[in-house]
Specification:
Helix content is 25%, strand content 27%. The chain contains 4 helices and 11 strands; from the N terminus they run H-E-E-H-H-E-E-E-E-E-E-E-E-H-E. The strands form 3 sheets. A 5-stranded mixed β-sheet has the order 5-4-3-11-6, covered by helices on one side. A hairpin with a 6-residue loop joins strand 8 and strand 9 (159-162). Helix 1 (2-20) crosses helix 2. It is globular. The N and C termini lie far apart (100 Å).
Length: 202
């Protein structure tokens, strides 16, 4: 036991003397091996010597930017990509003839093509809210015309509904049948609808 302790002390002494450049008998003491250092280290490290190659550093902020980009693609574009200021509901741009559904500050559907009110029946702009919905509505004012998937958002009888995308309406927002069904099943009573004209119609 005493011999082991003395040999351990000798190894430690050799490490210290070698580190500070001392010599014994004119010869530089040999540096101990990694195994010897592990043997005398009170807190031994991994069994294999550490890698000498330094890892490639990440560019500052690059990982965060990639994460945010992936999250944005998963959850949709920001609502700021539309001309509306509302974070949720429906946005309509009469000038661009398109519309979006929004939720949580992000676009969740759209843009989809629309047609709006013809001359003398202009669709009003402003901030509205969904008043009620009627799956199989017919217009009493215009010859019992069918208005499938109607979502009414104005007391003037203005609604989203399936209709012609080549002919203008009497004030309503025409959508394709697929888009009208999506709006009907997504929008709830009380949700906001914002109608804007991002530029003057030509």
């Amino acid at each position: 036991m005493l011999v082991r302790r003395l040999s351990g002390v000798a190894v430690v002494a050799a490490v210290v003397l070698s580190a500070i450049g001392l010599t014994v008998g004119g010869a530089v003491l040999a540096r101990p091996s990694y195994q010897d250092r592990v043997a005398v280290d009170p807190l031994p490290r991994a069994a294999n010597p550490p890698l000498t190659r330094r890892p490639t550093p990440l560019v500052a902020g690059s990982a965060r930017k990639r994460t945010l980009a992936l999250a944005e693609r998963a959850s949709g574009r920001p609502a700021t990509s539309t001309p509306c200021s509302i974070p949720a509901g429906a946005c309509v741009d009469l000038s661009a003839r398109r519309s979006w559904l929004l939720d949580g500050g992000r676009v969740v559907y759209g843009p989809v093509p629309i047609t709006s009110g013809r001359s003398g029946y202009a669709t009003p702009t402003g901030l509205f809210q969904v008043l009620y919905k009627d799956f199989d509505h017919h217009s009493r004012e215009f010859g019992n015309a069918p208005m499938p998937y109607s979502v009414f958002f104005s007391g003037l009888g203005i609604a989203f509904h399936a209709g012609s995308l080549s002919q203008q309406s009497h004030g309503c927002i025409h959508l394709s049948r697929v888009a009208a069904a999506k709006y009907f099943h997504t929008l709830e009573v009380g949700q906001p609808v914002q109608v804007v004209a991002s530029r003057r119609a030509s």
